[in-house]
Amino acid sequence: MIKIDTIKIEEFRGIRNLTLEFNGKNYAVCGPNGTGKSGVVDALEFALTGNISRLSGEGMGNVSVKEHAPHVDSKNNPEKARVIITFKIPTLGNKQVTLTRTVKNATAPSVNPSSSEILEILSQFDGHPEFVLSRREIIRYVISKPGDRSAEVQALLRLDKIGDLRSSLLSISNTYNKEARDLKRFHDQASESLAQGLEITDLVKAKILEAVNARRSVLGLTSLVDLTVTTALNDGLETSVKSAAVPKVNKVSATADLKTWREASQEMTAESMQSECLELKEQLTALSSNPIVTESVTREKFLRSAIDFVTEEYCPVCDTKWDMSTLQGIIRSKLQKFEEITKMRTDLECRLEPIITLVDSLDNATASVEKLAKVLATEHVASLTTYRTTLLTLRKAFRDFLPLTEAISAIVNVTVIPTDVTDAIEVIEKAVTIIPEPTQQDAARDFIVRAQDRLEAYRKAAREADKTKQRADLSKKVYDVYVDVSTKALEGVYKDVEGEFSKLYRSVNSEDEHSFTAKLVPSIGKLGFDVDFYGRGHFPPGAYHSEGHQDAMGLCLYLALMRKLQGNNFRFAVLDDVLMSVDSNHRREVCNLLRQQFQDTQFILTTHDEVWLKQMTTVGLITSGNATRFSNWTPDHGPAEWRTRDVWTEIDTALQASDIQSAASRLRYYLEYVFREVCDSLRAQVEFKGDGRYELGDTLAPAVTRFRKLIVDGQKVAEAWSQTDVVEALKLQEKSLADALLATNAEQWQVNPAIHYNEWANLSINDFKPVVTAFHDLVQKFFCEKPECTALVYLTTTPPKTPDAVRCNCGSININLKKPQKND
Amino acid sequence: MAKQTDNKIMSVPEQIFDQFLKELGEQKIPEEVIVRLRKTLVDNGQISVDALKTALFLSDSTNV
Predict the structure, then answer these.
(1) Among the residues of A224-338, which ranges form H helices?
(2) Phi/psi of residue A17, nearest 5 degrees
């Protein structure tokens, strides 16, 4: 991954020309809504991916990156709209790289220097803009439906391929399974037909040889001793026996065909079949009477068909190139909504299967008697042909299932055999009866010829059925293995994410939710997400938790997912105003979380909240100066920006401009903010106020008193450890703090809270400068002086409230508060 | 945690595909089928129905 040093944005979105220097560190952009913060986020995303999610997402209609990414005044000059970033790659020895991307050539950025290693790292951003997190994404992760969340989380973890492979393997397994079922049915029919032709009931070798050899004996042919896959039952028949005058219809086979038809028709009209059809009719009718269900069935079937067509890179209708994986993902996510309908439909289709088999048998039998009719009862051929057409129509209605009206009509009519058909059968039966009995030799010859024909058909059907069954078995086994492996692996992934998420969220809410746990429950196409609500049970995040808590959950889930996805390579993320609903205390904890647990990750943060920006700096998430403020925005000039300078520099600047009012105001607001933070970080005791409006008079004294007490406590501890040099240093520090407080004349300014600091604005520059200097000196006593740290000191404790130490982020300040144990 | 190299992210799918192919070997799936599946899935990154059918059966035709 990369660490960005600078970004230069030109004629892009609402920005005309802006350069920001991140220096490879965390960076904050602060400003009210509509001042151009999102332009920076868009520029980062565009530079790294060539895309802007906000312009290409769902519901964006005619808005596009190509047309709308350039500044409105450069919309006809997309080559002018460009973003240049310079970055280093830690894993390549901090190699420096410059990337330039213009809207005109969005897919072809200039990368300098360019190497396969660098391009490989940059390619990890392509198509996966998850490094940008906005509140929209948070909502998607936390309070979306399980099916939608599953898709979002899978996309983030790049798990979509896992689902795609599962779908492809299932599709193959289903295809061969269906084909195997069909071919087995043909095989069964061929088997039945062979047995009938041989006039035996059990299709076993001995019985076949017995039946055939009896006829071969009549014809003077040698007996067959074995029946192998190449044995010809008619071996020697053509050459040894002269063909007799063959009648047009063989009485024996005709009788057998008619018998087969009678058996099939009896099965079709049996009482059990009629009651099954009646029951199916009721269920199909119930299904069709609910228009919503009918619509769902229709859509489900359409989507199921659609996914079978998405196997090529181009649409089969219009030849437009599509992203196969994305399209399959969309279809599957839609199909998940029809899970119940799918089950209902599958159950009914299973029950229709035996009826379809019977329709096929009756059709085969009718085809045989149709041939007889062409010789023996030509006037009845039409009725049999029509009946076969009817049977094919019924079969299609059952197979298609939709429209349901046709399936219902088919189930009502399938057991009815038209009287003109039964009349035709009776006529043919009579005609067969009066055919003269064949000679014994003719009968034997016909028997063998027919048996050989049917044996060949049987062998072919058996070969095809066997081959397809092998494919069905193999594809099912491969699918089962994949489901097993991927399910276990995904459960592991979600378990890890669940644990990491809970840990991160607990660290943000350690005071009131220290026992917090969460459950990520994956199922096919869904990802359930329940969170603990103060030990009362697990519920969806939106059920009881506040919006602020939900925002924090979304951020923690995102961080847990990214850590799972990228591990140590999670080095860069853009957090776009993600904590707007989180209260001040929890935002501070979020800052601590990002700073402490993601030390190697460069965060670019945007916020409209000045207080949060200050908190970022105070806890050391943002080092001093690594931020910018946007004050307002105009189409002509873009955002008005000034670097976040040190507040003392801002006050000096105001004083140099003789703007005492501005300087006084800045000093007042900053002191009110910073001593409130000090009280919090050192756990100072402040007189409670119901309205929560703490002014400097409420916090300054408790803050200083608390710090002095902690320093004194530190002295005692150092004495107990016999650390004389530490004792002396702490004595000096305590005195220095007391002197600094004295120099501020703080008590003087707090005599009358109603007018106090307002008086500053009435002072002369020379009178006010010492006030500024004194407070500056006092405030600095609470911060680390090291340039790489500059963070506020804080108290660490052992639960419940035993002080451990006063520290800063870098450890330069470390006042030990733990006395040695007696046995130390 | 996903396995890492210096700068290449070993994705969860890659790990699962690898495990899947190993498990097919354990389940006595013919070696030549596994070799073809590995080439299709891992080397070529293909997961379409047609590509997998070819990997499994060399030809998607069931005609005999």
Answers:
(1) 237-240, 251-269, 271-289, 291-309, 324-335
(2) -160, 115
Q: Which two tokens stand for residue A356?
A: 């379809």
What gap in Å lies between CA A577 and CA A587, rounded to an integer? 12
Cα A151 → chain centroid? 3
Q: How far, rounded to the nearest angstrom, does the alpha carbon of residue A601 sit from its chain's CA centroid? A: 23
Strands A27-30 and A15-21: unpaired
Measured CA to CA in angstroms, residue A345 lies from A114, A214, A296, A305, A705 at distances of 56, 52, 11, 14, 75
A171·B16 Cβ contact <8 A? no
Residue-wise burial string across A541-574, b where 16 or more C-beta atoms lie within 10 A, e elsewhere: beeebeeebbbbbbbbbbbbbbbbbbeebbbbbb
Cβ contact B2–A566 (<8 Å): yes
Check if the beta carbon of residue A633 is closer than 8 Å to that of residue A640. yes
Distance of CA A536 to the CA centre of its chain: 29
* Cβ–Cβ contact A493 with B under 8 A: yes
Q: Taken in order A162, A168, A174, A176, is the CA torsion positive or negative?
A: negative
Closest partner residue to B48 (CB to CB) among A311, A475, A489 is A311
pLDDT digits (tens, 9 = 90+) for A211-258: 999 999 999 999 999 999 899 999 888 654 444 455 578 887 889 889
Quick one: tokens of A389? 């057409």
Q: What are phi and psi of A515, to 5 degrees?
A: -105, 15
Of A158, A169, A481, the CB nearest to B12: A158
Contact B52 A565 (CB under 8 A): no
Verify whether the Cβ–Cβ distance B50 to A312 is below 8 Å: yes
Rounded CA separation A6/A616 (Å): 20
For the stretch B34-55, pLDDT in tens is 999 999 998 888 888 889 999 9
Kindly state the tokens that stand for A206. 């001995």
Q: Which of A472, A305, A178, A309 is nearest to B56 (CA)?
A: A472
Please say whether the beta carbons of A682 and A793 come within 8 A.
yes
Q: Is A204 in the B-facing interface, judged by CB distances under 8 Å?
A: no
Chain B contacts to A (CB-CB under 8 A): 1-4, 6-9, 11-13, 15-17, 19-20, 23-24, 27, 29, 33, 37, 41, 47-50, 52-53, 56-57, 62, 64
Report chain A's mean pLDDT, rounded to a whole number: 84
Instruction: Quote the longest CA-to-CA distance of chain B.
Output: 51
Measured between alpha carbons, how far is residue A64 from residues A57, A60, A61, A80, A356 in Å?
10, 8, 8, 17, 52
Q: Crossing angle of helices A271-289/A291-309, nearest 10°? A: 100
The answer to whether A620 and A791 have CB atoms below 8 angstroms apart is yes
pTM across the whole model: 0.60
Sequence spans of domains, chain B? 26-64
Distance CA(A556)–CA(A548), nearest Å, equals 12
ipTM summary value = 0.88
Contacts (Cβ under 8 Å, ≥6 apart) of B21? B34, B37, B38, B41, B42
Phi then psi for residue A145, to 5 deg, are -70, 155
Measure the N-to-C terminal CA separation of chain A; round to a whole number of Å.
Answer: 47
Is the CB of A486 less than 8 angstroms away from the CB of B16?
yes
Separation of alpha carbons A555 and A361, rounded Å = 63
Q: Residue holding tokens 């939608």? A: A148
Residue-wise pLDDT tens digits, A144-174? 666 666 666 666 666 777 878 888 898 899 8
Q: How many CB atoms lie within 10 A of CB A232?
A: 12
